Amino acid sequence: MILSMTGYASQEHNTKQGILLVECRSVNHRYLELQLKLDDNLRLFEATARELIQAKLGRGKVDVRMSMMRETGVDSVPQLNHTVLQQIAESAKTAAQYFPHTQPVNMLDILRMPGVMMSEALDADALEADFKQVLNQVLQHLIDARAREGEKLKAVILDRLQQIEQHVTRVKPMMPNLIAQYQAKLSVKLHEATNSRDDDRIRQEMVLYAQRIDVDEELSRLDSHISEVKRILHAGGAVGKRLDFLMQEMNREANTLGSKSVAVETSQISMELKVLIEQMREQIQNIE
User: Staple 13 to which of 46, 134, 194, 265, CB 3.0 to 4.6 Å?
Assistant: First the structure.
């Protein structure tokens, strides 16, 4: 199975203590980078969340948001934390000595300060169990989404590979004739330039030059790389980095094909190969 690094999943889960909200989104990244945003009720589970995510995801920039909406009711009405209020009052009184002309403290602003309002204590063990369950479910939904996207990327890459194969198949039978034509033209030019009658010497030079412009080795390596890309795609798993390396190798062979070109046809094919390889590379950047 091929996994994209792009995906989204979210879930709401009703618990005895409130509604648990978990949202995950991921995009491509060289490594696994986690950004967790947990509200105060869930902050103590951050290390647990990181362990669960790292166990299931290999690469990608993953943004996870988790929050707890407490049930409203008589028993859950927030209460004033008198200890915190006393500390705020003492701090305000001390600060007023330095700033006697400031405006009076806004009571609503005080009530919004962290720790001023106390809610009923949560059952940490029960909440942790619910938290793990929901996060695991969301992560599985995210993996499923990434797998669906990965299948689309795989199809695109296989389509480009097929086009590359067609170009390689087309250029192979062309090469002997193109080289022979180029040798004949070059031989005529050499005769005209040197007025030499040493045909053996010119023939030797033609053979040496033909060896330098022969692209059979490059075409064979392209065939080998195509087969390897197919094998990796069908094997699945975390294959993004291996595929990216193969794209570099395929691009090198396409460049060499272009640099050795002795005809417009092979130059055009070299350019078409590089375009297809670049299109594959862009898709592979999104594969885990």
Answer: 134
Comparing C-alpha atoms, which of 193, 47, 237 is closest to residue 131?
A: 47
Does residue 208 have a pLDDT over 70?
A: no
Cα–Cα distance measured from residue 261 to residue 265, given in angstroms and rounded to the nearest whole number: 8
pTM of the model: 0.70
Contact by Cβ (8 Å): 93, 62:
no
Determine the straight-line distance between the first and last CA of the chain, rounded to whole angstroms. 11
- CA atoms of 112 and 84, how far apart (whole Å): 12
Which residues are CB-contacts of 40 (< 8 A; sequence separation ≥ 6)? 114
Written as six digits, the tokens of 229 are: 């890309």
| DSSP three-state, residue 162 | helix
Q: What are phi and psi of 198, to 5 degrees?
A: -80, 80
Neighbouring CB atoms inside 10 A of 157's CB total 23
The length of the chain in residues reads: 288
Q: Which amino acid is at 214?
A: D
Distance separating alpha carbons of residues 152 and 51, to the nearest angstrom: 29
* Angle CA 183–177–213, to nearest 5: 55
Angle at 283 between CA 279 and CA 285, to 5 degrees: 120
Over pLDDT 90: what percentage of the chain?
A: 48
19, 13 in Cβ contact below 8 A? yes
What is the pLDDT at residue 74? 41
Q: Whole-angstrom Cα distance, residue 103 to residue 95?
A: 12
